[in-house]
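thought: user wants a sequence for this fold. calling inverse folding tool.
action: design(structure=
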């Protein structure tokens, strides 16, 4: 049974930002003071529980993340942000919300010392949660902006003036310190009623993620291996019996693959992954996979489609990596009682290309989150599906990538990536038989196969791909390449359409220049604080 930790609304007075708050209904604002609040361990636990809202998965920006990569475009045309179009505007960016969460962490770390009779182990664990969350938010900031102000105190408004940007390397070092504290103080598991709280494994995995992003392969390998050695996590359906799609349904949100989740609860703290991301019965565009993403999935023989004799361009979903069917909703599939038709004809109804402003732009829809037990038109807008912030598959691929960089073609790198492939039902990558399509005889060959595993395993799960293409240095290539949808050919009389023949749908696409590795510092922050500088190129 799903367990839920307590989420309370923002502490408007204590944290220095406003919110409509159930908490304030129970505790009048004039009572939110050191004298009345910071009395018991429960106070600190409630306070830090709210900061979990800094984790992703709670809004359209998280659900839409892949539109900022080459994986997808937005079928809801008016909702596509500027970054997805290759426009990086300092007027669009913001970091105030991130610093609000950082301030909340700093408040907790200061005020927790006011609480008497706090058992040391419990107190250290709560501090560990706060330091993890502070490190997590700062990691997102330096990923996005590079150098950022580093603040580790709950500063008053008049103390903010003149604050400058701290070099990214220094902030990264502070992030590692926060993660290391969390690793040392957080438990490996919590009791059932505390399911969802950050654990030692989650802190190790997040440290590995941050290290991998900045090419600290030794730290990434060591940290991810430490998660594996906990023997606490395993891939859902590890033996590959064909249940991969269920991983993204509510029935499996607390499975052994979940290293860190953000929790949701219908009618109380729900999310709208299905309602916003894909609404196939009405042709609501949601997140539309590109042809490039569809083509990235191998054939069942373990070969890329360009090399496999099993691939048939006119029947492209046959003999493919099973994850493709679980990820991409395509023509002819039945979903929620509707047969999906994508041809750009009136006979296709609301799901056809161009049949209304929010229909698919590519000829494909997002299927990953389509839980058959959820009515997309009602519950799809208020789901209880937890968002997987970290899955064990990420830990395995982190280890595989880092280990291959440190020790090319290391056996343990093959073993880790092949666990992910086995679950998908694909043959193992190997380095002994060059006659097979799974052969990886060089470091770069294995590197490219691991990178493709990242892409297909985590497709349409938020913004992971946009950061991967940056850290690999391929963003300029893939974002400046033409964005395409499926091929189709209309008959001479305009009444019939043949899919997977003819010309590809050509999309607006994106663009990328070298300086777009970092986003522009928010202009409103520079306007408020002249000591802040802008990133080069903006």
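)
observation: tool returned 538 residues.
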């Amino acid at each position: 049974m799903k367990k839920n930790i307590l989420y309370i609304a923002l502490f408007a007075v204590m944290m220095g930002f406003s919110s409509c708050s159930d908490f304030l209904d129970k505790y009048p604002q004039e009572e939110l003071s050191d004298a009345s609040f910071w009395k018991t361990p429960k106070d600190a636990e409630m306070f830090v529980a709210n900061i979990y809202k800094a984790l992703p998965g709670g809004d359209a920006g998280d659900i839409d993340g892949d539109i900022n990569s080459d994986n997808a475009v937005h079928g809801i045309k008016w909702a596509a942000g500027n970054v997805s179009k290759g426009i990086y505007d300092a007027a669009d960016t913001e970091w105030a919300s991130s610093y609000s969460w950082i301030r909340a962490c700093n408040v907790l770390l200061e005020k927790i010392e006011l609480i008497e009779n706090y058992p040391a182990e419990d107190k250290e664990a709560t501090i560990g949660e706060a330091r993890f969350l502070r490190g997590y938010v700062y990691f997102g900031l330096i990923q996005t902006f590079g150098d950022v102000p580093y603040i580790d105190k709950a500063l008053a408004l008049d103390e903010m003036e003149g604050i400058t940007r701290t070099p990214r390397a220094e902030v990264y070092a502070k992030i590692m310190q926060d993660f290391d504290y969390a690793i040392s103080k957080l438990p490996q598991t919590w009791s059932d009623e505390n399911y969802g709280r950050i654990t030692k494994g989650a802190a190790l995995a997040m440290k590995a993620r941050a290290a991998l992003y900045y090419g600290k392969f030794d730290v990434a390998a060591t940290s991810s291996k430490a998660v594996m050695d906990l023997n606490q996590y395993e891939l859902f359906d590890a033996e590959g019996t064909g249940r991969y799609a269920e991983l993204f349904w509510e029935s499996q949100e607390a499975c052994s693959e979940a290293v860190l989740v953000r929790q949701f609860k219908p009618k109380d703290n729900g999310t709208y992954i299905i309602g916003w991301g894909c609404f196939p019965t009405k042709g609501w565009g949601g997140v539309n996979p590109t042809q490039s993403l569809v083509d990235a999935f191998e054939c069942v023989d373990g070969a890329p489609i360009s090399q496999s004799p099993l691939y048939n361009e006119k029947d492209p979903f046959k003999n493919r990596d099973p994850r493709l069917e679980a990820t991409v909703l395509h023509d002819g599939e039945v979903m929620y009682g509707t047969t999906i038709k994508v041809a750009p004809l009136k006979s296709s109804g609301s799901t056809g290309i161009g049949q209304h402003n929010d229909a698919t732009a590519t000829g494909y829809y997002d299927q990953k989150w389509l839980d058959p037990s959820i009515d997309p038109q009602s519950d799809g807008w208020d789901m209880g599906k937890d968002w997987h912030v970290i899955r064990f598959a990420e830990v395995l691929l982190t280890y595989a990538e880092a280990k291959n960089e440190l020790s090319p073609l290391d056996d343990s790198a093959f073993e880790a990536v092949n666990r992910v492939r086995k679950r998908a039902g694909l043959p193992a990558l190997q380095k002994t038989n060059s006659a097979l399509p799974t052969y990886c005889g060089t470091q770069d060959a294995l590197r490219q196969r691991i990178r493709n595993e990242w892409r297909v395993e985590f497709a349409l799960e938020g913004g992971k791909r946009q950061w991967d293409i940056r850290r690999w240095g391929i963003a300029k290539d893939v974002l400046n390449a033409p964005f395409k949808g499926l091929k189709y050919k209309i008959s001479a009389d305009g009444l019939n359409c043949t899919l997977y023949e003819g010309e590809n749908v050509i999309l607006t696409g994106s663009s990328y220049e070298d300086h777009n590795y970092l986003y522009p510092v928010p202009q409103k922050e520079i306007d408020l604080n002249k000591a802040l500088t802008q990133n080069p190129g903006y």
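thought: summarizing for user.
answer: Here is the designed sequence. The first helix runs from residue 12 to 15.
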